[in-house]
Amino acid sequence: MDMNFDRHRRLRSSANMRALVRETHLRAEDFIYPLFIVEGKQQKQEISSMPGIYQISLDLMKQELDEIVQLGIKAVILFGVPEEKDECGTGAYHDHGIVQEATREVKKHYPELLVVADTCLCEYTDHGHCGVVKDGEVLNDESLQLLVKTSVSQAQAGADIIAPSNMMDGFVTAIRRGLDEAGFKEIPIMSYAVKYSSAFYGPFREAANSAPQFGDRKTYQMDPANRLEALREAHSDIEEGADFLIIKPALSYMDIIRDVKNECHLPIVAYNVSGEYSMVKAAAANGWIDEKAIVLESLTSMKRAGADLIISYFAKDVAKWLQEG
């Protein structure tokens, strides 16, 4: 018998051998954990479509932050859920807005924990769109002015990274200029460079109370059928001064993660979105899947596709599993 063939199984012969040659790894410091902050006191409300994820008030943040830091997670991204909304999203850029106050709360307890501030208007506008609306149309350039005000206010409150998620044309260049003029030249921008108009966002809109009250967001978020458009968006944001690039969602868009990684040399952030989280949680609750195995496999695949960092609601679970070995 001719025995001249490759012996690939040699490198799979034991758990230690497999670990020795493993190409892709998950680490606690790879993750950014989302927090939904509400106004009021003693508020901790589980989000019905996202088991294990809560809207919490400022006075209860310390307990949550203690756990995050103990688990070795280095960054959080803050989403505000204000009590009052208006046509222009005033709460987004108010000096005492919910994200600004939450940022100060983080820095009071853990100055080294990185705060990523989501920079958008949809949670704060009564119409639920990510910009200024006139006659049913989301206005691009008028929206940029408010996004700049929001980013500067967040930086003044102590945010380490500004993460604009609105997908207005020119939002990175406008925010970069605004931050620089306000004296925040060292604050990086984590751009939602490639953000698809996706059905996977449904549970988030419950969590952040940010569903649009009319129409949809297809004029500013991307068509899921498009691939080359993602590269155009990414290159525009790089030219405008972005420091990180987010691809959102992640699981159904790993070809896009790889495309952007191959062409761009900034850190790539995959957003493992709410719908991806909720599907796994629902299947696990029914006993249909092994939650830990599925989560670790899917998040590892995002890193294998080219993500350097992952925004994920699973971050605390994964950090615990990694500590357990």
Structure report:
- This protein is an alpha/beta fold and 325 residues long.
- The protein has a single domain, classed as Alpha-Beta Barrel (TIM Barrel).
- Helices cover 39% and strands 18% of the residues.
- It has twelve helices and twelve strands.
- A hairpin with a 7-residue loop joins strand 2 and strand 3.
- Helix 4 packs parallel to helix 5 (140-157) and helix 5 packs across helix 6 (171-181).
- It comes from Lederbergia ruris.
Observed structural traits:
two-stranded antiparallel sheet; 39% helix; porphyrin biosynthesis; Aldolase_TIM; 325 residues; alpha/beta; EC 4.2.1.24; 10-stranded mixed β-sheet; ALAD_AS
- Overall 3D form: globular
Order of helices and strands: HEEEHEHHEEEHEHEHHEHEHHEH
Strand content: 15-25%
**In the CATH hierarchy, what is the class?**
Alpha Beta
Please, how many helices? 12
| Secondary-structure content class | alpha/beta
If you average the pLDDT, what whole number results?
91
Which architecture name does CATH use?
Alpha-Beta Barrel
Rg, rounded, reads 20 Å
Q: Work out the number of β strands.
A: 12
CATH superfamily: Aldolase class I
Distance, first to last CA: 43 Å
Total domain units:
1
Largest sheet entry:
10 strands, mixed
Q: What is the name of the CATH topology?
A: TIM Barrel
Helix content: 25-40%
Low-confidence stretches: none
Task: Reconstruct the topology from this structure.
Elements (H helix, E strand, L loop, with lengths): L14 H6 L10 E8 L5 E3 L7 E4 L3 H10 L4 E7 L8 H4 L4 H12 L4 E6 L12 E3 L2 E3 H18 L3 E4 L6 H11 L8 E6 L6 H7 L19 H13 L3 E5 L5 H10 L4 E5 L1 H12 L5 H15 L3 E4 L2 H10 L1
Parallel strand pairs: 1-3, 1-4, 1-12, 4-5, 5-8, 9-10, 10-11, 11-12
Antiparallel strand pairs: 2-3, 6-7
